[in-house]
Amino acid sequence: MCFYKKTKPWSKLKKALLEVIDTSIDFDIHCSVHNPHIKHWPEVRNGRLWIVVGKDKKNVWDFPNNISSDAWGYEDMEGISNLIREYIDTPREELLTRQLEDKFQLLPILRASDRRIGKRRLLKMLEESPNELVKMIIRLRLDTQK
Asked: pTM for this one?
């Protein structure tokens, strides 16, 4: 089971996140934890978090697989969960301006998927983002709003 702040279950955090996500893009976030003592997976130390979107369930974010870091551990899993909680609690008017520590490159994905961000701001994000996966999510959202 994935946890954040050492005591709160992942399922409650996931539910809170999905409440702010645009349902039309078929967004889902998954968490799995592996026992670090299993000999078959010596390279997996703690677990994996990943996000899929669209009918084809395209993987748009995957920790630790897409994160450029050689060393990661439980603290990072907890850090990601805390980042998600901070993002959820961010007031609507601060969604694009609030600075949160994001060494995981997760915020652009969350912002592109957030139903609290409307079409006008999505169009601006589409122009400015260098991330092709973020652009794909924004296009998916814009296509479903037609």
From this structure: 0.86
At 5, list the tokens.
């702040």
Q: Structure tokens of 32?
A: 């799995």
Q: What is the pLDDT of residues 45-102, one digit of tens each?
A: 567 899 999 999 999 999 888 776 655 666 788 889 999 999 999 999 999 999 999 9
Q: Are strands 47-53 and 28-33 parallel, antiparallel or unpaired?
A: antiparallel
DSSP per-residue letters across the chain: --EETTTEEHHHHHHHHHHHB-GGG--EEEEEE--TT-TT-TT-SSEEEEEEETTTTEEEEEETTTS--S---HHHHHHHHHHHHHHHTS-GGGTTT-----TTS-HHHHHHHBTTS-HHHHHHHHHH---HHHHHHHHHHHHHT-
For residues 40 and 60, what is the distance between their CA atoms, to the nearest angstrom?
A: 26
**Rounded CA separation 140/123 (Å):** 12
- In sequence order, the 6+-apart residues with CB closer than 8 A to the CB of 108 are 129, 131, 134
**Number of other CB atoms surrounding residue 15 within 10 Å:** 10
